[in-house]
Amino acid sequence: MDTLCPRCAGIDVHKNNVVVCVRCCDRPGKVFEEVRTFSTMTAGLLALSDWLAEHGVTHVAMESTGVYWKPVFNILEGRVAVILVNAEHIKQVPGRKTDVKDCQWLAQLLQHGLLKASFVPPAPIRELRDLTRQRTQLIQERTAAANRIQKVLEDANIKLVLGVSGRDMLEGLIAGETDPAKLADLARKRLREKIPALRLALQGRATEHHRFLLRMHLDHVTHLEELIARVGGRIEEALAPFAEAEERLQTIPGISQRVAETVLAEIGPRMEQFPSADHLASWAGMCPGNNESAGKRRSGRVTKGNRWLKRILVQAAWAASHTKGTYLQAQYRRLAKRRGVKRALVAVGHTLLVIIYHVLKRGTTYAELGADFLERLEPARLTRQLVKRLEALGHKVTLEPRPAA
Predict the structure, then answer these.
(1) 3-state secondary structure of 391
(2) What integer pLDDT is reported at residue 207 of this predicted model?
(3) What's the average model confidence in pLDDT over 15-41?
(4) CA 227 to chain centroid
(5) Over the stretch 169-188, which tens digit does the pLDDT of each residue have?
(6) Do 199 and 187 contact (CB within 8 A), yes or no?
(7) For residue 146, what are the contacts with CB-CB under 8 A and spacing of at least 6?
(8) Which of 230-239, 356-365, 396-405 has the lowest mean pLDDT?
(9) Does residue 34 sit in helix, strand or coil?
């Protein structure tokens, strides 16, 4: 095989140490290998960097092992070309599995250019990605805490929703108020029209035990909301250099500010790393899988991909399906009837990702096609479908073209 990287190294990453194989091939047929183990402490990783520099290593490959690859990547980034690869793509031959053989195998594949690098965004985008993912987890924790409040209220046979008015009523209930009329009188604005129904909903049996649990869970929800607000402010600061891209993304139906922030954190504002929109959809796991054998196509379910991006795209697809007079709404309704709601949402999410790719690639804003775009695109096909439906209902259809005005 051709040697593309004459001086390279493979790193097998673990929690407490890394096993490194340096592979040098300055002359054809002459290969020099040396294997050493380093600690994952900062001093050990700096020693690893110096050792690689002594051997003149230009390229390094390592597996994306959990979060343990990040300190190694941060130390070596900028000093050598670091290639992060998917462990699924470089499985060792069965029966020959050791740390030394893993790093040697990595170095050998890298030397001959047989490794496919994973997408690792620059440091500012990686930091933004950490923030958006942390916010998503905090929102999930807040939802779980709010559900615990609902369980306690159900145990006390009180029907209450945790909104602005609901919080005031909950605070009154925790403070010891048991009169449903006084609690219902805490309703605000339009909810005051439902005071008679609220009196019935707030008539329950709240004990000191319930009040204790409600106080604890409500404090937890309040604390999580404060953390979410702090992380949100930090995200806005980190997104300041990419404000223009964020505004352009928000011109797409279904893309809110939070969705735009998450999308930019996951794929970045530039699309040079993805050759086409199809590559981006495959990387995100928003396209059918490719599984065919003996001419038969097996399961075409979507691949794993980027679960953070996939989740937010499906949420955006649900929002886009509720817009009025848009192409995305028409696409959702057309597919939901035949394929079901879930498949339709994934398909609309795929379309959203393709639109996002071209908006970021070309530096333009979204141009609405209209709900009747496909009808205008293929009028003859729509005519045949409508005639076929009328004939199925027992009508004889005769078409006569209308003269031009």
Answers:
(1) helix
(2) 92
(3) 88
(4) 21
(5) 999 999 988 888 998 999 88
(6) no
(7) 162, 221
(8) 396-405
(9) strand
- Distance between CA atoms of 221 and 218, rounded to whole angstroms? 5
Q: What is the pLDDT of residue 95?
A: 47
- For residue 327, give both structure tokens: 């192409």
Helix axes 307-321, 277-284, angle to 10 degrees: 110
**Is 247 within 8 Å of 311 (Cβ atoms)?**
no
| Cβ atoms 149, 162 nearer than 8 A | yes
Mean model confidence pLDDT for the chain: 89
Residue 69 has which token pair? 């690859």
* Cβ neighbours of 120 (radius 10 Å): 17
Q: Which two tokens stand for residue 109?
A: 């594949």
- Are the CB atoms for 294 and 273 separated by under 8 Å? no
The residue type at 98 = T
Q: E strands of 28-105, at which residues?
A: 30-39, 59-63, 81-85
Report how far residue 73's alpha carbon sits from residue 48's, in angstroms, rounded to the nearest whole number. 12
Per 3-state DSSP, the chain is made up of helix, strand and coil in percentages (nearest 5) of 55, 10, 30
**H-helix or E-strand containing 338?**
helix 327-339
Structure tokens that stand for 65 in this block: 């092992």
Q: Kindly tell me the sign of the dihedral angle through the C-alpha atoms of 362, 366, 367, 369.
A: positive
Spatial contact of 156 and 204, defined as CB atoms under 8 Å apart: yes
| Cβ atoms of 354 and 277 closer than 8 Å | yes
Mean pLDDT score, 58-74: 90
Closest CA to 34 of 100, 102, 91: 100
Closest to 156 measured CA to CA, from 208, 196, 194, 199? 208
Name residues whose C-beta falls within 8 Å of residue 206's C-beta, 6 or more positions apart in sequence: 156, 158, 173, 178
Token pair listed for 141: 């924790």
Instruction: Please write down the long-range contacts of 42-45, taking CB distance under 8 Å and 24 or more positions apart.
Output: 42/71, 42/75, 44/17, 44/18, 45/18, 45/71, 45/72, 45/75, 45/76
Other beta carbons less than 10 A from residue 331's beta carbon: 21
